[in-house]
Amino acid sequence: MLTILRKEFNAFLNSPVAYVVLGVFLVATGLFVWVFPDSSVLDYGYADLQTLFNLAPWIFLFLIPAITMRTFAEEKKAGTIELLLTRPLTDGQIIGGKYLACFLLALLALVPTLLYYYSVYKLGSPEGNIDSAATVGSYLGLALLAAVFAAIGVLASALTRDQIIAFLVAVVGCFLVYSGFDSLASVLQGSSAYYVSQLGIAAHYRDLSKGLVDSRDLVYFFSVVAVALQATRLALRSRNW
Fold first, then answer.
1. What DSSP string runs through 64-102?
2. Alpha carbons within 13 A on the beta-carbon side of 76
3. Which pLDDT tens digit goes with each residue over 150-175?
4. CA atoms within a 13 Å half-sphere pointing along the CA-CB vector of 226
5. Nearest to 202 by CA among 232, 228, 174
6. Which of 134, 150, 178, 216 could be 103's S-S partner, Cβ–Cβ 3.0 to 4.6 Å?
């Protein structure tokens, strides 16, 4: 699995896709956090990074599928998938290596944003006047969100040999899991609305953004990742049916 991970990660770094993804993410978040007056921290007057944590999931919604769309679709289109699957590797090792490479690239996009935290920390009056617990929780939420989106993207890529179709399926799937249940809950009433909203990512992401790391939220994220990767495994095994 580590061999697959290194191969995939190096392939990303040797292609323009990785740099376009990282560049778009950093430029977009930088403009909203520091430049645009309606969302700029400098104009807002409060030492927090809520703009970043509200915006990042929507950017990830498109950028992570752009990373994952090639994982299996490209192998199928090039005809190398059979060669890969005949190697002394299990399906789980192949999926795990490709998935972790995509996940690590998404995490790599978050690393430069730590400079935002440092800047706001220094600019606070008094210095350090920022809710660090909520910031750490929000970063953890973004990392887990990226993990789920990457798993859904890898699944979408395993279902088709066309990268564009894989991208579109992943975007729709990520959107439904992130925001679809919230939208459905908004038209319901009573306890049913609460339980439906808990099926989506947004509710758990909001909880983590408050700095409250609840085991139920962690179990939710890990469960969605496990289900998506298991579905990817079934999609690969379908070649034998």
1. HHHHHTTTTHHHHHHT-HHHHHTSS--HHHHHHHHHHHH
2. 17
3. 999 999 999 988 999 999 999 999 99
4. 6
5. 174
6. 150
